[in-house]
Amino acid sequence: MDECRGSKKSFMKELCITESTQETEALGRKLSEELKEGDVVGLVGELGAGKTCFVKGVASGLGSVGYIKSPSYTIINIYEGGRLPLYHMDLYRVSSPEEYDSIGLEEYIYSGGLSVIEWVDNVAGLADECTILVTLKYSEADGAREIEIVRREGK
Fold this sequence. Notes:
It is built from four helices and eight strands. The chain is globular. Helix 1 crosses helix 2. The protein is α/β, with parallel strands linked by helices. An eight-stranded mixed sheet has the order 1-2-8-7-3-6-5-4. It has a single domain (15-153), classed as Rossmann fold. 23% of the residues lie in helices and 31% in strands.
């Protein structure tokens, strides 16, 4: 794990390789152990990179109730019954900061639950608001993913 410290922020960076959807979910479960109320987890990656699979693991680790699926068309799915309410957002279809502002997701992001936002990089500046940024990439190995987890302190 790498550590960086600057004048305003510090962060910890971890690089993981998963070789199956089960391992990607397990990594999400592991991350859920450290998540707390008010955390915002941003997810970045191409279509099919494993973002929703990762969220399934986070939800499982929290003990969330319900079938976890991508909220591509609904923008947000809310899962309760676990250690924290989980607000799972998908900004794939959001094409501008103005459109994002009009949806009203801030009430969830800045509430008492945990927000996990797929396609966080679709809205300029939103990734900078995340306490944890997870980037998922296809690896050279068949079916494997490179997953970078950056934990930001001082958020």
